[in-house]
Structure formats: C-alpha cells, structure tokens
UniProtKB/TrEMBL annotation, chain A:
Main location class: membrane
Annotated protein name in UniProt: sn-glycerol-3-phosphate transport system permease protein UgpA
Domain ABC transmembrane type-1: 70-282
Recorded topology in the membrane: Multi-pass membrane protein
Known function: Part of the ABC transporter complex UgpBAEC involved in sn-glycerol-3-phosphate (G3P) import. Probably responsible for the translocation of the substrate across the membrane.
Subcellular localization(s) per the UniProt record: Cell inner membrane; Cell membrane
UniProtKB/TrEMBL annotation, chain B:
Predominant subcellular localization, coarse grouping: membrane
Keywords linked to the UniProt accession: Cell inner membrane, Cell membrane, Membrane, Transmembrane, Transmembrane helix, Transport
Topology class, membrane: Multi-pass membrane protein
Compartments it resides in: Cell inner membrane; Cell membrane
Family: Belongs to the binding-protein-dependent transport system permease family.
Name of the protein described by the UniProt record: sn-glycerol-3-phosphate transport system permease protein UgpE
Keyword Cell wall biogenesis/degradation: no
Organism of provenance: Thalassovita mangrovi
Domain of life: Bacteria
Complexes and interactors: The complex is composed of two ATP-binding proteins (UgpC), two transmembrane proteins (UgpA and UgpE) and a solute-binding protein (UgpB).
Domain ABC transmembrane type-1: from-to ranges: 96-289
Amino acid sequence: MKRAGFTTTWLPILLLLPQLSIIAIFFYWPAAHALHSSFYLQDPFGFGSTFVGLDNYSDLLGNTEYRRIAWFTVIFTVLVTFLSLSLALLLAVKADKVIRGARSYRTLLMWVYAVAPPVAGFIGLIMFNQSWGPLTRLIESFGHEFLLGVNYNDTAFAMVLVSVWKQVPVNFIFFLSGLQSIPKSVREAALIDNPSASGRFWDVIFPLLAPTGFFLLIINITYALFDTFGVVDTLVKGEPGNNPMTLVYKVYVDGFRGNDLGGSSAQSVVLMVLVLALTVFQFRLVERRIHYT
Amino acid sequence: MSDTTPAALAPAATAGTRKRRRIRASDIFDHAVLIAGSALMLIPLLMVFQMATVPDVEVIKTGPTFTIGDQLDDNFNKAMFQASGFSGENTGSRMLLNSFILGIGFAVGKIVIGMMAAYAIVYFRLRFATLAFWVIFTTLLLPLEVRILPSYEVVQKLGMLNTYQGLIIPLIASATATFFFRQYFRSIPEELVEAARIDGAGPVKFFIDILVPLSRTMIAAMFIIMFVYGWNQYLWPTMITTEEDMFTLVRGIKQITQVMEGNRIPEYGRANLLAIIAIIPPVFVVIFFQSWFVKGLMESDK
C-alpha cells in the first residue's frame, strides 16, 4: 500500500467486490468441495454419499494403475523439462551470439508459444500418421514400426516430443532475455580470463543464468503436469485404453467419464498438495535466489 | 558473446589458422543450429498447410509432399461453412467466433477485474487490505486443472453450462492479472498520487485519467498474454461446452480429428485447414506485437 493512499472506504470495497466474489464462487467453493468430497463415497446412482474417511486416499495409494500413472507422470515431467530446457538454452545461446538475422531467428523460434497444446497434439497425429506420417516413415527407416496409440512406448515418445516442441519457445524467450541482461563488462572480463568459449559459458554465463533456470524449472514442471492435458488427449484420441496418461488426465477420466467422484476428488487433492509443495519450493528458491551481479 | 570471440567450437582452431577464418567457421555453426531449430519449429506447420491445399484423395495416398495444390479455396469453404457434427452448428466460422469471444472476453475481463482489485489494494488505506491480498493471491497456487471437477459442478449448479459466462468467468478466478498490476502500481512514484490529490483529483478521477493512461503498455502486454491464454484453453471448454454451437476452435479439435478419421474418405484438407485457422490468430498477435508480448510474458509469470 502506498503511504499517500486515498481514505475513502466504500470505493475500494466496490473495486474489490468483483474479484472477491468470482474467487469465492469459482475458487474457494470448488476447492473446499474437492477436499470435502475426497472423504466421501458417492453413490453411483446419485443418492447421497457416505463418509469414508481416508479410504479414497488409501485406495489411491494401493491402486497399481494409479501408481503406474504417477510413475509415468514423473518420467514424462523429467524428460519434457530436461529436453525443452536444454534445447532452448542451446538455441538461446546461439541466438544471442549471432548478429545477422537475430530478429528473424527470434520470431521463428518463438511463434509456437501461441499454438494451443491440443493443436500441437493434432499436428503430432499428422506427423505420426500410421500410413504416411513423415515421422513414422523416418522411424521406419531405422527399422522400428511406430504405432501411435497402440504401442505404449511409442505413444509416450510422441507425447514427449510434441510437449517439448510446444515448450521450447517459452524457455527460449526467457533464456534469451536472461542472456541479454548479462552486462557486457562481465563478458569482456571473462574473455580476458578464459580463452575457451565453452569454458567461459560453463564458468560465467551458465551460473549467471541460474536464477532464470530455476524459475523455468518450476514453470516447466507445472507445464508438464497440467498444460499437457491437451497434447495427451489428442494423441490418445480421447481413448485412454492402455495408453500412457498423466495424473491430470486421470482425474478427468475418472471423475468425468468414470463418475468416481470421491476417487477423482482425492486425486485432485493429491495434485493440489503437489502444486502447493512446488510453490513453497519456488518461493524459498526465490528468497535465496543466487545473485552474482 | 561478442562476435569477435575467437571460436573454440571450430575444430581447426589451432594457433596457426588465421583469425578471420576461425570466426567464420563458428558463425556458420551458430547459424546452422539456429536454422535447424527454426526448421523444426516451422516444418510441421508447413506440412499441415501443404495438405490443406491438395485433394484429400492425394493426401491418403502420399501424405505431405512438396507440391502446393489448388484446393485451398475448396477446403476453406468446407472448413468455414460446413458443419461436421450432428446439429450442423459447429462450422469453422462459428467456432472462430466463439474462440474470439473466449479470447477477448477472458482478456478484457481479467484485465478490468485485475486492475480494479490491484488499485484498491495499492492505493487505499484499508483495514482488511492484507487479508484481501492473501485471499486473492492464494488463487495463484492452484491452477484450474486441479479443481476442475468441483468447478464444473459449481457451474452446473449455477446453470451456466453452455454459456459464455460459464466459459469465461471461472477462468478469470485466478489472480495473475491482479498480481501483475499490483507490482506495476507499486512501481509508480508516490508523488503522482500526492500531486493528483493536491490538484483536487478524487480516487475515481485519478484512476481513469492518470493511472489507466499510464498503464497503457502494461495493459497491452497483459492483453496479448491473456488473449493467447484464453484462446488456447482446452480442458475447461471441453467440460463446459457440450453443445456444438458453443465450441471454440481449440475445443473442437477433437471433432476435427474425428472428421479426419471419418468413415468415408477422411477429410484431411478440411481438418488441416481448421487446425491452421486455430493457430493463426494467436500466432499473429504474438509475432506482430512481439515486444509487448515478451514484456508481458516476462512480467506476468512472476
């Protein structure tokens, strides 16, 4: 708050009212509801529900399918995060270096940001089309018959690839702006001390990018957990079957299609806890943010 | 790194080689990486576009090729004006309209509500300001995806399924814009409020005549980010809109896929063109307002 603020009381309340009421109705109410119904077992015919305590949670942890999906989500998240961060870093370092065409490269490398995840998934479907998909053919030339939506690993591969393709631009933009904010004097000093370009990168530039990197780590984990829903849904064509899926997709499948409201709510709560943990971790990182400049 | 850097990446970088030659080798490598990256981004889209210009029969036989056909008009008409669903209402033009309503409605709603709340928090002496701050900013912690089912139930109870309100308002229930404007308002020098007050401007006048014009760039940056975000929503529209005349392009992508996998000749041309139409507006916005977009992205993500 500014010291020289206005003292009217009715106006700020009026100004806050729309935001607060939307939040109350569409945030706190649903969140509380999820927490509440995670302790209940919904009658399948809609005749009320019974309190079952932590049963929904213990069912979840004992469920091998859920554990398998959780594992897939972890591996998927690690792969997407690592691959999109490292590719973006490579491209950003190069884009920062070149003089000619820098603007065009920037545009060409960032437009995919605006492509919606399910549309990216659609493009993936085209690329991996069974009979003529260019990537199917490419993989075939290495002697593997690629079966999207049939072979578990193939589908997982396609999901990772499409998700990385979609995520590289965001990371690229952040890394590039991180690189451009490194003072010229630092680079010149490094140039005098260290003749090797790769040595300079790892000893000077990379540590300076660390804050951006940590921040992007969280962004990418959140992306892989939640925003890839559209990619997963289009690539499995809405038919989960035996295909790999992420935890968020499972919440949707169980709650919306399977009508297992209690179980789905328990899953939502597990995800909420996960996100909260991530956020706390992020805040602590920001607090201790390493500053070299 | 400056371009006069002696390149360690060039394999021939021994003491004997001339400096100019080494620079060139590393430059070529840099450009090669960037061109490869750009190509990987662009080629899938070009293939999808190519397939939208040739007859479907040709696509089924060969997939993407290098020839640009003459079917673009035809496919465009099919994509925009011919419906694929049961009700005959989810034509491309209808979905395009809905996408714009969602994108613009979401962006405007979020900015207006966010600015109002941020103004109240930053510029007024309120006893419950801290409380309001925390109540609002807790929403940053939980994305819509984790509370998707209960949110659906709330919207259902309020009878807002298949309405634009039901589509847009719950998406606004997160404080990203409020947070963004709060940060920005706090960076505005305090003397401005004092000067305005001395000149006799009330809180409403100060907001409309001084603060809003001052925030123009910020509003533009925020609008671009939010428009793209709203346009690209998928999970929420999938749940809330079940009537085909309410589908957005991104929501309709599953139907587009089914058109492609249809029982007779899969309509690749139309499906691909619809995907391209779904891509063009947000990409256009991002490319043409690049500097605002980058600014918005940098500052909205905390």
